[in-house]
């Protein structure tokens, strides 16, 4: 994807099946709170001690245990702090209220109604992520990201974040990635569908999510070249990237 032709093809392509995205509504719960401080580019702490993970975005990470920070991690945190530190904001909850770490999941708005998530995406300081069932304002987030991508802002202008060929991934490449490849084979488990991008790397789609959100059969994807985004994990001698919604797949023309 570092070549000009492939890169142009990626940036020309729209999110797969975008027209089918549901117009999910916010839940009734909304709360006005004050932000005590910002942890990184996608999470913050309220003055009552609750930690909030911003729904629908993922910012570059700070290094742990002596590892270097990812490019633009400092800039992303600084921008979120500029927007939210000490501010009164409105939390709008979606269908799933907490993540596996116990953090509150919320859409966050400034006093003037500005979406913090959409602002971070528009400035290229985060990627849009989609984890059902929290799908409210998904179209707006994707539109904000598309603006940054078209203008090569932030992460979209960094070669560090260009999609990596699936066959080049190793166990050292776990974590959030954009991965490209051609779907060569489909495998079926009881609860998972596997779309193989390389001999030892596959997209892993929960069967329930495929049946709910994806049109067509998994086999219809064979031969399609895609870029997938998400967290790469290792299990035994294989790598997997979990995909739960078609909007995290981009077709390469």
UniProtKB/TrEMBL annotation:
<keyword id="KW-0732">Signal</keyword>
<dbReference type="Pfam" id="PF00565">
    <property type="entry name" value="SNase"/>
</dbReference>
<feature type="domain" description="TNase-like">
    <location>
        <begin position="29"/>
        <end position="158"/>
    </location>
</feature>
<dbReference type="GO" id="GO:0004519">
    <property type="term" value="F:endonuclease activity"/>
</dbReference>
<keyword id="KW-0378">Hydrolase</keyword>
<feature type="signal peptide">
    <location>
        <begin position="1"/>
        <end position="27"/>
    </location>
</feature>
<dbReference type="InterPro" id="IPR035437">
    <property type="entry name" value="SNase_OB-fold_sf"/>
</dbReference>
<keyword id="KW-0255">Endonuclease</keyword>
<protein>
    <recommendedName>
        <fullName>TNase-like domain-containing protein</fullName>
    </recommendedName>
</protein>
<keyword id="KW-0540">Nuclease</keyword>
<dbReference type="InterPro" id="IPR016071">
    <property type="entry name" value="Staphylococal_nuclease_OB-fold"/>
</dbReference>
<dbReference type="GO" id="GO:0016787">
    <property type="term" value="F:hydrolase activity"/>
</dbReference>
